[in-house]
């Protein structure tokens, strides 16, 4: 298992600059990336589940507002929101589109944690 250079945050981290995306996903072993929008009802419904994954697993959680980061959303083929990507070792390991349960999110990241 590789050592991360940064401690895993226990709360979702909002992406401020697209330039920070690669550093975040490569700076942690497993990252759940939540592509969302503030106006998206299913995104709002998923917020407690996303927060639970951040606080209850060893996965880091990064929230990407698709309205602010349209280029990044396009780069990762986000066509509907919420779209959740699981990165392991800096590479996309899983993709989920639409509202997911907390259990589904935990299962997606736990399969990547060593």
TrEMBL record:
Q: Does the keyword Cell membrane apply?
A: no
Q: State which residue ranges cross the membrane.
A: none
What are the annotated disulfide bridges? 40-43
Q: Record's superkingdom?
A: Archaea
Keyword annotations for this protein, in alphabetical order, are: Disulfide bond, Electron transport, Redox-active center, Transport
Q: Where is the Thioredoxin domain?
A: 2-114
- Gene3D superfamilies assigned to the protein according to its UniProt record, in alphabetical order: Glutaredoxin
Cited CDD domains: TRX_family
Catalytic residues of the enzyme? 40 (nucleophile), 43 (nucleophile)
Show which residues form the site (Contributes to redox potential value): 34, 41-42
PANTHER family assigned: GEO12009P1
Q: What is this protein called?
A: Thioredoxin
Origin organism is: Halorubrum glutamatedens
């Amino acid at each position: 298992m590789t050592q991360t250079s940064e401690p895993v945050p226990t709360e979702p981290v909002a992406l401020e600059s697209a330039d920070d995306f690669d550093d975040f996903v490569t700076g942690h072993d497993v990252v759940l990336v939540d592509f969302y929008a503030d106006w998206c009802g299913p995104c709002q419904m998923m917020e407690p589940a996303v927060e639970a994954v951040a606080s209850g697993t060893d996965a880091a959680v990064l929230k990407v507002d698709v309205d602010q980061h349209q280029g990044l959303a396009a780069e990762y083929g986000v066509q509907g929101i919420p779209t959740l990507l699981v990165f392991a070792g800096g590479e996309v390991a899983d993709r989920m589109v639409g509202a997911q349960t907390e259990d589904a999110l935990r299962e997606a990241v736990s399969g990547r944690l060593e």
